[in-house]
Design a protein that fits this description.
The termini are far apart. This protein is about 35% helix and about 25% strand. By secondary structure, the chain is α/β, with parallel strands linked by helices. The chain contains ten helices and seven strands. β1 (about 40-45), α4 (about 50-60) and β2 (about 65-70) form a beta-alpha-beta unit. The structure holds S-adenosylmethionine. S-adenosylmethionine binds next to α3 and α4.
Length: about 260
């Protein structure tokens, strides 16, 4: 079982109270549809969680059949959508070529095998279908990562994949000409502990490939001291590199695809 699934289940009840950034990115992601013309019948919100993107999608696409997929069943219980499926994104319980549009807000950074994920999405999508997502890039939480790196060599923050590599993976899975964008958003905190509380509150404290050894109080204190060097105008920044991507599944072997304007 994925080590992150229990974290998201545990966080489900408090997720929305800590997910300010996730909600903002969900809004920005949904606004990409202002310039992409689609009229889908079947839509998947992949890694839908408690439904921050779901609510925006259902407003924009009121006539579509919107199915929320997540492997954390407690998160899905908090999601107000009507159609919900508890499943792993790597093994979607949908027929080949059955989905018009897959949208995914900030799930992909939790999927270490992007090629397998894109292959699976590609399998269930109809020819001409659209995949639209957001995820995090390498500069995400750089202040926290650098502060920990002075203390020890354990991975305390996940490694995030560069947007060009994500685009390459999509191409390898058979998507047509992926379009990738990036923006940096900075949250500010009074104390490092407030940032840690938000990360824990959304279930994001689990790090891939990390042994279960506990981090001692002394090391934690040292990391906080290092983080203080980033204080600017009284506040501690936490940088997020947000990546947005979209790509179409080819409609035929000739690769004829709908036109997108962004
Ligand atoms: C940061 S939350 C984002 C939730 C929601 N999309 C939002 O914008 O608030 C990431 C979600 O992805 C889900 N997730 C991560 N890996 C998954 C996988 N392999 N299959 C299904 N869901 C997954 C988690 O359970 C969690 O609900």
């Amino acid at each position: 079982m994925s080590p992150i699934r229990p974290s998201f289940n545990k966080a489900a009840l408090h997720y929305n109270a800590h997910a300010f950034l996730q909600d903002e990115v969900a809004l920005r992601l949904s606004e990409k549809l202002n310039v992409i013309a689609i009229n889908p019948e079947v839509v998947i919100d992949l890694g839908a969680g408690t439904g921050l993107l779901t609510s925006k999608l259902s407003q924009r696409l009121p006539h579509a059949q919107l199915v929320c997929v997540d492997f954390a069943q407690h998160s899905l219980q908090s999601n107000p959508a009507q159609l919900k499926v508890c499943a792993d994104a790597y093994q979607l319980p949908f027929a080949n070529k059955s989905v018009d549009f897959i949208a995914s807000n900030l799930m992909m950074q939790w999927c270490p095998d992007l090629k397998a994920l894109f292959d699976e999405c590609h399998r269930v999508m109809k020819p001409g279908g659209l995949m639209l997502f957001s995820t995090f890039g390498p500069d995400t939480l750089k202040e926290l990562k650098r502060s920990w790196s002075v203390v020890d060599s354990d991975p305390h923050v996940n490694t995030f994949i560069d947007m060009h590599d994500i685009g390459d993976q999509m191409l390898q899975s058979g998507f047509n000409s992926p379009i990738m964008e990036m923006e940096k958003l900075t949250l500010t905190y009074d104390k490092v502990i407030d940032l840690m509380r938000d990360l824990k509150g959304i279930g994001a404290q689990t790090v891939h490939n990390r042994s279960k050894s506990l981090t001692g109080k002394a090391k934690f204190k040292q990391m906080i001291e290092m983080y203080e060097s980033y204080r600017n105008e009284g506040k501690l920044p936490a940088t997020y590199e947000v990546i947005y991507g979209h790509a179409w599944k080819k409609t035929s072997s000739l690769g004829v695809v709908p036109v997108s304007n962004y």
